[in-house]
Amino acid sequence: MKELQSTTRDIARELARKYSTMTHEELDTLESILVPRKVSKGETILKEGDVCDSIYYMDKGLVRQFYFKNDKELTEHIGADGEIFMCIESLFKEEPTKLQVEALEPCSLYLIPKHRLEQVALHNVNIQILYRKILEESLIISQIHADLLRFETAQNRYLRLCKMNPQVILRAPLVYIASYLQMTPETLSRVRAATL
């Protein structure tokens, strides 16, 4: 059976359900600024040096945000279905990002262009609330990840990720999960074996 594709209206409803209640007119406005984009597995969504000008909502798929340090790739974030992602510093400073975003699976994305979102938020309180809650969620996710790395043991980092985002554990390559949790693939294999 063929899977039904989401429409921009479906995505507008999902965003409203998750972040803010909206009138039909506000849903129409939000729907009008959404930009659908299909991405193939392995495709670069944002590369280092690009300016991130949108917030991305992932209807379906898996992505990772990463950067290079001392010629090593370090994974900053792994996101799955129903999640928001962005390069927040680039988005707000309107400067080139140091991060890259790559599709780990074929992805169905909806871009929310920042300038359009800010324009419509000026006239729609519920869209302002949605914008604020998306940013709050992004900051909280970043803080949780930072605290995980600072305060938790390798085993607890893995167990917390299993609980917070089981889809990442099931679908992302182990090398990226290990990088995200700041451990070697060998350490991750030992931790996984110890938790079974």
Number of helical segments with 4 or more residues:
9
Radius of gyration: 18 Å
Task: Give the mean pLDDT.
Answer: 94
What is the element string, with H for helices and E for strands?
HHEEEEEEHEEHHHHHH
Structure class:
alpha+beta
What is the CATH class designation?
Mainly Beta
Q: How many independent structural domains?
A: 1
Largest sheet: 4 strands, antiparallel
Helix content: 40-55%
The CATH architecture is Sandwich
Please mark out the parts with pLDDT under 50 across 5 or more consecutive residues, or reply none.
none
Cα end-to-end separation: 34 Å
Organism: Hallella multisaccharivorax DSM 17128
InterPro entries: cNMP-bd_dom, cNMP-bd_dom_sf, RmlC-like_jellyroll
Domain Cyclic nucleotide-binding: 18-120
Protein name: Putative transcriptional regulator, Crp/Fnr family
Short descriptors:
Jelly Rolls; 4-stranded antiparallel sheet; alpha+beta; 9 helices
Characterize the structure shown.
The strands form 2 sheets. The chain has a 4-stranded antiparallel sheet. The chain has a single domain (8-151), classed as Jelly Rolls, CATH 2.60.120. The protein contains 9 helices and 8 strands. 50% of the residues lie in helices and 23% in strands. The two termini are 34 Å apart. By secondary structure, the chain is an alpha+beta fold.
